[in-house]
């Protein structure tokens, strides 16, 4: 009887553990990810080789179940964030993932612009329409469009940019119908939507957040295979790797160089999240130098948090503050 009792109790506990692992709390948990060499995933046609390497750094982010929550509470370099700090209001998981992948795409675009401009190589643009980032609830597009749809025609007429799309729709009146042609998973579809005045702008719209779908055309060509990595934080390191393949001079000087930071087409480096976890990941990967956003010396800058973490884990990795792409290039050119 006692053996049966223990067996039954064990099974009940096992089932409870299994079921609770599928119960998610209203938190996201982030933990140190990886530091990944960029040369294998970025290829400039006939680009120059390098002796060292540039590395992007990542964090692992996911919804927290009970065990992930407890582990994060007990771990020094795991962080918990309320859902509303990660996802926009009324944003679904699918829309969040689409937004992260688009941020990565925008990051790659800005990195290419920055690197080719620095190398003095002209850039041309090709517009393909607009991407839907999310759909507002209780608005005309709800239930008709989805995050990730690419709209390229309004009433049968092709357009290029988000400005052109907004201008075309704004000329209509509330209650007017428009037909949108869009692509979803390589299938071309159409939907007719009745316009409604948007509270935010006072102008008629369909109720979507959108962004340009554009491509850069450069010679030599460049290809970036970022797989399913999301977010904009690899922009700085992308731009350094691309630029290094475009020029004869090897900026790596044989060093293992990690870093993080957004980049815009002007080459300004911006703040990112999870800097502490990225320092841990870079140290484990053997990085010798780490570029961190300086934010013009702000009191709570990424750089200061990175330097504090580096001191705490007693790494020999050099933490370097940067405000611009040029700051990073100048530092590398002064290395032995």
TrEMBL record:
Transmembrane keyword on record: yes
InterPro entries in the cross-refs: Lon_proteolytic, Lon_Prtase, PDZ, PDZ_sf, Ribosomal_Su5_D2-typ_SF
Q: Which UniProt keywords are present, listed alphabetically? A: Hydrolase, Membrane, Protease, Serine protease, Transmembrane, Transmembrane helix
Q: What is its EC number?
A: 3.4.21.53
SMART domains membership: PDZ
- Presence of the UniProt keyword Zinc-finger in the record: no
Q: What is this protein called?
A: endopeptidase La
Higher taxonomy: Bacteria, Bacillati, Bacillota, Bacilli, Bacillales
């Amino acid at each position: 009887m006692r053996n049966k009792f223990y067996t039954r109790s064990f099974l009940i506990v096992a089932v409870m553990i299994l079921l609770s692992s599928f119960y998610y709390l209203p938190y996201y948990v982030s933990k140190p990810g990886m530091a990944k060499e960029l040369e294998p995933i970025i290829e400039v046609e006939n680009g120059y080789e390098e002796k060292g390497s540039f590395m992007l750094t990542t964090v692992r982010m996911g919804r927290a179940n009970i065990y992930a929550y407890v582990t994060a509470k007990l771990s020094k370099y795991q962080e918990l964030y309320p859902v509303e700090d990660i996802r926009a209001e009324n944003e679904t998981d699918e829309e969040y993932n689409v937004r992260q992948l688009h941020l990565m795409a925008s990051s790659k675009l800005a990195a290419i612009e920055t690197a080719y401009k620095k190398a003095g190589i002209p850039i041309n643009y090709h517009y393909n329409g607009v991407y839907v980032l999310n759909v507002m609830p209780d608005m005309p597009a709800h239930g008709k469009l989805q995050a990730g749809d690419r709209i390229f025609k309004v009433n049968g007429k092709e357009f290029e940019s988000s400005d052109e799309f907004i201008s075309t729709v704004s000329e209509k009146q509330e209650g007017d119908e428009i037909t949108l042609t869009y692509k979803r998973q390589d299938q071309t579809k159409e939907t007719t939507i009745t316009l409604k005045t948007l509270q935010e702008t006072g102008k008629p719209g369909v109720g979507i957040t959108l962004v340009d779908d554009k491509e850069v055309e450069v010679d030599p060509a460049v290809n970036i295979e970022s797989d399913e990595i999301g977010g904009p934080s690899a922009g700085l390191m992308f731009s350094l790797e691309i630029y290094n393949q475009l020029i004869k001079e090897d900026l790596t000087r044989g060093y293992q160089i990690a870093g993080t930071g957004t980049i815009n087409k002007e080459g300004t480096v911006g703040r990112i999240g999870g800097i502490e976890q990225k320092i841990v990941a870079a140290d484990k990967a053997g990085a010798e130098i780490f570029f961190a956003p300086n934010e013009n010396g702000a009191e709570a800058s990424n750089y200061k948090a990175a330097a504090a973490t580096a001191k705490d884990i007693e790494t020999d990795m050099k933490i370097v503050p940067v405000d611009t792409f040029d700051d990073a290039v100048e530092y590398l050119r002064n290395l032995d």
